[in-house]
UniProtKB/TrEMBL annotation:
Organism field: Sphingobacterium siyangense
Family from the record: Belongs to the UPF0301 (AlgH) family.
Name listed for the protein in its UniProt record: Transcriptional regulator
Cellular component GO terms, alphabetical: cytosol
Cleaved signal peptide residues: none
Highest rank taxon of the organism: Bacteria
């Protein structure tokens, strides 16, 4: 269904609409690492009912949502942000998007209300691929690759809207896919 594009660090991976793996059904992944050794990214639209204040004692009143970034290392917490000016840290994965950073500065920015939910996402776990595995999945049309997108898409809180906007961003040839029902057999 999808055409193959070249993935790179900062690409969005958009699952084909009827992916059989329920962990990645209608998912959008921000690719934070992509090299000959493998790939790492975070599912941007799999929000949990857990809030970061429930996990971190230092910010008990913080209601920022936590997302399931993927099936690997779900006991670990990760984050991406757009506020290098506040955290002065993080690895830039796309223009204006940073992976990780100074946790103390992050906590302080949250406590002083200087960082907002549309500038930061927390993840438990990540999505990972061994060397060549992601390339194979792209060739099998499991994923579409989008390299040009507005960085605010990363921080969209509505998971279904994020997936639809990412599909539409692939161009007019794919826009109709955004309207596919989640379970076509039920129609």
């Amino acid at each position: 269904m999808f055409t193959e594009l070249d993935p790179q660090k900062g690409s969005l991976l958009i699952s084909e609409p009827f992916m059989l793996d329920p962990r990645f059904l209608r998912s959008v992944i921000l690719l934070c690492e992509y090299n000959t050794e493998g790939s790492l990214g975070f599912v941007l639209n799999n929000q949990t009912n857990v809030r970061i204040g429930q996990l971190l004692e230092s910010i008990p009143d913080c209601n920022f949502p936590i997302y399931v970034g993927g099936p690997v290392a779900q006991e670990s917490l990760f984050f991406v942000h757009s506020r290098f000016d506040l955290l002065l840290s993080g690895e830039e994965v796309a223009p204006g998007i940073y992976f990780g950073g100074d946790e103390e500065k992050l906590i302080e920015a949250i406590q002083t209300d200087r960082i907002k939910p549309d500038e930061l996402k927390f993840f438990i776990g990540y999505s990972g691929w061994s060397a060549g595995q992601l390339d194979g999945e792209i060739k099998e049309n499991s994923w579409a690759v989008q390299n040009k997108y507005h960085h605010q898409l990363i921080f969209e809180g509505n998971g279904e809207l994020l997936w639809k906007d990412a599909i539409i961003g692939l161009g007019p040839k794919y826009a109709h896919v955004a309207n596919f029902p989640q379970s076509p057999g039920l129609n």
